[in-house]
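Example 3.2
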Amino acid sequence: MKKISYLILVLILLQFMLLSINTYVLASSTDQTGLISPIQDPDIYKPTPEPSTSFNAILKVAGSVLGSIRNIGIIVSVISVMIVGIKYILGSVEEKAEYKATMIPIVIGIVMLSSIITIIDIIYTATTNIFG
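Structure, written as tokens:
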């Protein structure tokens, strides 16, 4: 039981650690000496043309699918925890021991679902910021 609680704690801490990572990107260019220096004149920067509209459409569809998966996962998680919780409250002593054992995979599944969705959401947001 201790190993499982430590595993859950590590997974939760890993999820919070992934959410708290910040990256900073600074624009720079090379000067005549070949050294990297900050861009002095912003007019030098010429952005690439807009990505194709089909790629933007793909990003919109991916965003809606990601949101749907997240919402369905949350709903299923809450309903499954509610069902097991009600069975736990109404069950006998022997049944309560069984429900405690069935609750562990549900909690691990919820942590994994939220972690995976968070990682995919970070990738989607980064992709949207770059290309969209």
